[in-house]
Amino acid sequence: MRQKSFLSGLIEKPIPTLLKRGDDAYLLEKYDDAIHFYNRALEQERKCDSSSTDVASLLHKIGVVLARQGDSFAAMNSFEEALKIRQEKLGPGSEDAAETTAQMTKVLDDIRSQTGVGERQYVRGKSNDADDKSVEASLEIGTNLFEWGEYKEAEEVLKQCVDSMNANKESSDSEKFQALFTLASLDRAQGKYDEAKALYLEALKTAKKMGEESDQVDMSIVNSIAGYAEILRKAGDLWQAEALHKKVRGMLLKAKSTEEDNDTDIELQLAVSHTQLGCTVFELKKYEEALYEHQSALQIRLEKLEFNDALVSESFNYCAETLCAMGHGAKALPLSMHAVDVRKKEFGSSHPAYAHALCVLAQVYNSVGRSLDALPLIETCLEICETAFQKKNHANIIPNLLVYGDILSSVGEPQKALDTLQRAEEIHKSNFKSGQKDFQLESCQQKIDKASKAIENESSQQKMKSAARKDSSHRNCPPDNTDSGGQPVIVFTDIGKDVDDVFALVVLACLKRMFILNPLAVIATLSPQDERARLARVVLDSLGLPDVPVCIGTDGGSQDLVEMHCFDNEQHLLNLPYGSVLIPRILEDAEPKSVTLLCLANLKDVSELMVKQPDLFSEKIKNVVIMGGASYSEASERLEPDETAYNNNCDPAAARMVYLECQKLNIPTTTISRSAAYDCPFTINNLNNLRLKCNHLLASEIYEGNSKAILTLWNKVNLPVWNPGRGRLPPRCDKDWFCKFFRVTIDDEECPHATDSW
């Protein structure tokens, strides 16, 4: 029976082919077809790197086509994302960034020429269709600019819109309410709380006027009350804010009870109410209540929205922040990582929403003892906020500065921490009146006192200890659960584009929680070993194992350059130790003959450990488990490695040494050959089921990574054995082997070339 479906769903047309078809369709003015091909190419590019210059180029092309179709606002969204990537990757003054900026300017000019926004004043005291469209368009422009984080431009457009409506007595109440509400939300985001209060109250008055003749719950009134409550929360009047948010909750529940069907809009409004009330009781330090509210919001959003939706990531972010405050940093870490990943994709790397996610992730890393990993995250957060808010003394920066001060204290920088905390205190006093947000000021002053005492008590001996902490804070993390039951194991992995080792770490996490294995460290080997180590660190963090050290190993006998990818976050900022330094320290603390070495990769690191630490190796190693293959030699009367196996072939001398020394020292070895993998296939259906049933980014990464790995392998097996493009693939791995291994039947005439086989 033919089984083409195994791979046919995974194979896409090559990106260059899709680009050419898109370009051809554009030249023929078949814009829908062009968009179709460009979007298919964009989807493939995002799987490799969601913020590459190739992605930006495709977004730019899509924007051009959308502009030609007259969809100006969609075009602006596409250009905005392209510009952010190009500025970040190539620089603000680059030719590509300038090209995108020029296109955005052209689209804005088209919008202005169509709507009159920015080119003429609205006609006061008159009402006609053209003016109505102008008001509606300007409101939409202002809302979009607000969502993009362009606060100054949004404020200008929205104020002009509100002024025009106030001057025109025949203006629509619904549009007036929307303009007032959006401008109030913008002022709240900018910390202009007094102005926002006045606007919310005016919006509430307009909403009540709209709902006078209806017995139904008016959502405009609900939104106005919720917005006013949020202003009270931001200004520090938490008890009144809590009372108003609970009132909103009651109104929404009443609205829900009157609906015969399950109204998604009301459900999502209820999720917003849960979120806002959660944030309010969080500031009141009612953490259990806050967690309940945020989890309730998350449950609704997971039922109604896609897993990668920005609102879902918001709930993950707040759940993580609350768990961190409750002392559950390891549980918070996967949620926070997900929020960072989604918010960067949804909002871009210069939006305050992304900055907030970075701040929470920094808090989480600091709470689990990874202060050096937290430091660059909070610094990036502050840079984004100061740029977005366009002033350095914005009230919304205060919480970030408090987190920054905590992290600086953790890494042994008390003077810098004091300076940061004093700046936070000054910003608070310049933004809030006496009695407003006293709890924030009190927290700030407590931290200042603590930092001042640390400086006063610092002696030369303490400075040395501080330096030692800076050197080791990223190496050993205090686990949430100090019970270290299970077989102690050190794992050597060449984690990368293939998903086998990623999946192995997933299994490792499960076995740790079952107290079957106790991972002492994970060592990433094979060039580029530093990138592999960061990838392993991200995977373990996403699995809630921040306490398991990850180390950079050797090059594994290879100098190949391989691009790593997993989670589009700040993994390049992570601080990691070297295995050659940490492993001896781990073994020194271990019981005699207690540690298992699990080798999922080449054996160069193990061989170097034998050479440099022979006494430790012989005393502390219980057994060695090797994935690679071996056979008994009659000539030498001992077990010897199978040098055709990939892991052994990376560094054959190291493999021979490990087997020889283990036999000399009477250290048991367990060798697992490729035959075991052949006899225990893990089909793509299993991976797909994992992705569908598990709400975790790693599940999607494993599925997509496996798909790309299979495609890459298919291309390699179709190359002749002498072609360098095969890499280290053994000659036995040809097309026939591929079809037999993956149980696929393919006719030669259907697959003449690797590039267009499927």
Automatic annotation (TrEMBL):
Q: Where is the Inosine/uridine-preferring nucleoside hydrolase domain?
A: 489-668
**SUPFAM superfamilies per UniProt:** HCP-like (SSF81901), Nucleoside hydrolase (SSF53590), TPR-like (SSF48452)
What superkingdom heads the lineage? Eukaryota
Q: Which molecular function terms from Gene Ontology are attached? A: hydrolase activity, hydrolyzing N-glycosyl compounds
Which keywords accompany this UniProt record? Repeat, TPR repeat
InterPro entries linked to this entry:
Inosine/uridine_hydrolase_dom, Ribo_hydro-like, TPR-like_helical_dom_sf, TPR_rpt
Per-repeat ranges for TPR: 56-89
Task: Tell me the SMART domains matching this sequence.
Answer: TPR
Query: Region Disordered: which residues?
Result: 455-485
Q: Which family does it belong to?
A: Belongs to the IUNH family.
Under the heading PANTHER family, the entry gives: NEPHROCYSTIN-3 (PTHR45641:SF19), TETRATRICOPEPTIDE REPEAT PROTEIN (AFU_ORTHOLOGUE AFUA_6G03870) (PTHR45641)
What's the protein called, per UniProt?
Inosine/uridine-preferring nucleoside hydrolase domain-containing protein
Q: Which organism is it from?
A: Skeletonema marinoi
